[in-house]
């Protein structure tokens, strides 16, 4: 069996076209979604992430701004900027780019974002809502994975799904989303014993570790769906996933490449959530 390639780049492009049409329709009603991103410091990768989010938002007709603060900015100053954006009625969604400098507590900042503008879905209120199945902002990478599965018509109900990694931004929310779709879900981490036996039994594997090669052909059942979230730059700066892609694609039923799989879906879901934030506060379904 040769796997169906889940082409995140193409799927993201199609999804963004639909979002663009929704933005146009909102603008006709007098509402323009606006995404504000706080960036503290001069980390090159962070600067490039926030610039691509801004560009992507503008391409859809949204307004986007980067609030760029100096590396030495105090926690209080970041909180003041956040308060300003929380209260600014022109702002639909707020992102704070991580990592933050050491003098600024990431958790304190996340907890200070207005939950109605928390388009990353990291605020405890939104995490709680996700866990009780209320409509909320779902973290963008897991949401993007669900859209990839949905787009490829992959049946989730009753399937054995295995996740490697239990972070708050990927592993745990994807656990909840797969459970909502009636999969039987196992979540693994660095203390899991005998990962291979769980993997071998899985119909759906989501790997979110950041260790190239952690999933190899011998771990994967014939026909399984393999979602690779890993994103590790090699010595030449080329991004590597967690999965031995060339080997695993020979036996998997479907697989995401790295780059070009989950990554493009993540930014798309930032845009999706910004649009959702604008619609929610305007009472538009
Ligand atoms: P993280 O917070 O570092 O979490 C990594 C998880 O992997 C932890 O739960 C850890 O277990 C587990 N782990 C580490 N070594 C393991 C091992 N040998 N066996 C089993 N589990 C192991 O990472 P993250 O933020 O979720 O990101 C994971 C990867 O996804 C990274 O490469 C990141 O760059 C990538 N990523 C990509 C996107 C995208 O849009 N493409 C978005 C987000 C993240 P413990 O909990 O026991 O420590």
TrEMBL record:
> What InterPro entries does this protein map onto?
Aminoacid_DH-like_N_sf, NAD(P)-bd_dom_sf, THF_DH/CycHdrlase, THF_DH/CycHdrlase_cat_dom, THF_DH/CycHdrlase_CS, THF_DH/CycHdrlase_NAD-bd_dom
What's the family? Belongs to the tetrahydrofolate dehydrogenase/cyclohydrolase family.
Q: Know the name of this protein?
A: Bifunctional protein FolD
Q: What is its EC number?
A: 1.5.1.5, 3.5.4.9
One Gene Ontology term, aspect cellular component: cytosol
Q: Which UniProt keywords apply?
A: Amino-acid biosynthesis, Histidine biosynthesis, Hydrolase, Methionine biosynthesis, Multifunctional enzyme, NADP, One-carbon metabolism, Oxidoreductase, Purine biosynthesis
> Domain Tetrahydrofolate dehydrogenase/cyclohydrolase NAD(P)-binding spans what residues?
139-280
Assembly and oligomerization: Homodimer.
Taxonomic superkingdom: Bacteria
Q: Which PROSITE patterns match?
A: THF_DHG_CYH_2 (PS00767)
Swiss-Prot/TrEMBL GO biological process terms: L-histidine biosynthetic process; methionine biosynthetic process; purine nucleotide biosynthetic process; tetrahydrofolate interconversion
The chemistry this enzyme catalyses reads: (6R)-5,10-methenyltetrahydrofolate + H2O = (6R)-10-formyltetrahydrofolate + H(+); (6R)-5,10-methylene-5,6,7,8-tetrahydrofolate + NADP(+) = (6R)-5,10-methenyltetrahydrofolate + NADPH
Among the GO molecular function terms of this UniProt record, one is: methenyltetrahydrofolate cyclohydrolase activity
Give, as in the UniProt entry, the pathway in which the protein acts. One-carbon metabolism; tetrahydrofolate interconversion
């Amino acid at each position: 069996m040769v796997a169906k390639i889940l082409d995140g780049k193409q799927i993201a492009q199609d999804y963004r076209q639909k979002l663009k049409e929704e933005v146009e329709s909102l603008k006709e009603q007098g509402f323009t979604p606006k995404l504000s991103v706080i960036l503290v410091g001069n980390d090159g990768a962070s600067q490039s992430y926030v610039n691509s989010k801004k560009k992507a938002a503008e391409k859809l007709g949204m307004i986007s701004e980067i609030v760029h603060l100096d590396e030495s900015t105090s926690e209080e100053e970041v909180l003041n900027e956040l308060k300003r954006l929380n209260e600014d009625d022109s702002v639909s969604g707020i992102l704070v780019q991580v990592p933050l400098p050491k003098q600024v507590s990431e958790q304190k900042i996340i907890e200070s974002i207005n939950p109605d503008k928390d388009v990353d879905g990291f605020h405890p209120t939104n995490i709680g809502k996700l866990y009780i199945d209320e409509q909320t902002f779902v973290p963008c990478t897991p949401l993007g994975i669900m859209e990839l599965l949905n787009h490829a018509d992959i049946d989730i109900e009753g399937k054995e799904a295995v996740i490697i990694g239990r972070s708050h931004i990927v592993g745990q929310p994807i656990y909840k989303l797969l459970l909502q779709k009636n999969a039987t879900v196992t979540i693994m981490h660095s203390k899991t014993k005998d990962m291979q036996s769980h993997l071998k039994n899985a119909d759906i594997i989501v790997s979110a570790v950041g260790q190239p090669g952690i999933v190899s052909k011998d771990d994967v059942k014939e026909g399984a769906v393999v979602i690779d979230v890993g994103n590790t730059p090699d010595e030449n700066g080329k991004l590597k996933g967690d999965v031995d892609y060339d080997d695993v694609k020979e036996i998997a039923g479907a697989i995401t490449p790295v780059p070009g799989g989950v990554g493009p879906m993540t930014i798309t879901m930032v845009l999706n959530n910004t649009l959702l934030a604008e619609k929610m506060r305007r009472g538009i379904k």
